[in-house]
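Q: How would the C-alpha cells look for this protein?
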Amino acid sequence: MKNKQINVAIVGLGFGAEFIPIYQRHPDANMYAICQRDHTKLHQVGDALSIEKRYTDYDELLRDPEIDAVHINTPIQNHAEQSIKALRAGKHVACTVPMATTVEECRQIVEAVNQTGLTYMMMETVIYSREFLFVKELYENGELGKLQFLRASHQQEMAGWPGYWEGLPPMHYATHCVGPVLALAKADAEYVSCFGSGRIDENLISKYGSPFAIESCHIKFRDSDLCAEVTRSLFNTARQYRESFDVYGSKKSFEWTLIEHEPSVIHTGEVPKKVTIPDFAHLLPQEIQGFTTGGVYDADDNQHLSFLQGSGHGGSHPHLVHEFIFALVNQRQPFPNARQSANITCVGILAHESAMNGGEKINLPEFTLS
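A: Here is the predicted structure in C-alpha cell form.
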C-alpha cells in the first residue's frame, strides 16, 4: 500500500469519535467513512466532523470496495465477530481492547489474519502512553539495567457505564495492565496464576457469574527469568482511577505516582527522585502532534467516560493511529500484531479462569503468524 493514502472507516462513534480528526490530519490516511447504528448519533458526528460517507449497517460498510481498513470501537462482545468479518471482507483491522472475550475467538482472528494476509492491530493505549514511552526509552538506553520485575494495575469504578459492563470479570478487561509489562520486556506470557479477592454486589454477580472485587495475577514470561504481577478491579473497590505500571531494574526503577497528576518516582539505587514525564509528540508526523494533548473530548461538556477517567490515555491516540497507518504503508507488522494481541488478551481471559479455580496454573496457548 505504499504511495497510497489509506481509506479508513471508523465503527462506533462514542470513544471512536476521538480518532476521527487524527485520521483526517494524518498525511497517509483518508478518513473515508463512519458507522453507527443510531442515526441521530451518526449524523451528529458526521456533520460536526465533515464526514460524507456514513453507514448504519456494518455489513453494508464492509461491502464498500473503497475502504482499506476499519477501526472498531464497539462494545467488547462485538470485537471478535466484527474483526473476523472485516478480515474476511478484505479489510485491515484496528480494534480497541480487548481483542476478544474467549481464547477461541483470539485463535480465529489470528487464523483469519494468516489466511487473508491482512493486518490486525489491537489499539492498546497504555503501550503508547507518554509514561510507557518514557520508561521504554530509559530501558533501551540502558539506564534501568537488567529488568528484574514488573508490576501493573488498572483500578476503575465502572458504575454508570453501559449495562454490559456490569459484573464483568476484572481480568476480562486487563490489557491496560498486561500490555505494558509484556511490551516493555518484548516478551510473551507463558502461564498465569490468579487469585480473586473480595465480593461485588449480588445483583452484579449474576450477569457473568464472577464474584470477585479484585483479581491479582502472576504472569510467567516465556523464555525469560522474568515475571510480572497485575491487579484489576471494576466494582465496589475504593480507589482513584489508576492505570499504572512499575518497573524494577538493576540500576534504576520506575514507580508510577500513587495520586493522579502528581510526579512519578525514579529510584537510582536507594535514592528516590520525583520525575515529570515528558510528552513524546516529536515521534509523530507534525500534522498530528497536537493530539497528544488535545482532541474531541476536551471541553467540559463533551467528555467521554473512558477519556475523562483515563486522563486522556497518556497522549496515546495519535501514536496508535500512526503505528497502524505506518505499518500499512510500509507493509510491516504493527505492534501489537494479531499474535501479540492474542497473547495479551488471553492472559486476562485465562487469569479469570485461574481465579475461578483457586489460583490454578494455566498455560497460554501459542499463536503463530505465517
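Residues 171 and 352 are 6 Å apart (CA to CA).

The longest helix spans residues 338-356.

Upvote if useful.
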